[in-house]
Design brief:
Elements: H1 2-8, H2 27-34, H3 65-78, H4 92-98
Length: 99
């Protein structure tokens, strides 16, 4: 679905979310390889994460935010990509719309 969305809407942001990891332990990486271009680290304090569960089997509930960010950077590097730290996150679609 991500690939189809990327092909039909090449200038939007598509998230590779933690929900993909509930289906496959490599779900986030596969999401990026399929066309997603955004990841969102879980910065919620570990002590509060179970209060904000949107779905079952959410991964990494016990990892602190610093570990999550380090892990995220590592898994993205493993597929040959890099995180665009300190870059604007607006999609090309939004940038083109506002001119």
């Amino acid at each position: 679905m991500l690939s189809l969305a990327r092909i039909t809407m090449p200038d939007i942001n598509l998230a590779s979310s933690t929900a993909l990891e509930t289906l496959d332990s490599l779900g986030r990486q596969k999401g990026l390889l399929a066309g997603a271009n955004v990841v969102m680290p879980n910065l919620t304090p570990v002590t509060s994460r179970k209060k904000y569960l949107l779905y079952n089997n959410k991964p990494n509930l016990d990892k602190d935010a610093a570990l999550s960010a380090d892990t995220l950077q590592k898994i993205i590097a493993e597929i040959g990509e890099v995180i665009g730290f300190n870059e604007a996150g607006s999609s090309l679609h939004f940038k083109n719309r506002i001119g």
